[in-house]
Amino acid sequence: MPILRAGEDMLLQSHAVEEATYHGIGGGGVLILTNQRIIFEKQLGLFSKRMETEFTVSIRKIHHAWVEGLVRKRLGIEFYIPSQAGRRT
Question: 30, 45, 73, 84: most buried, per Cβ within 10 A?
Answer without folding.
Answer: 30
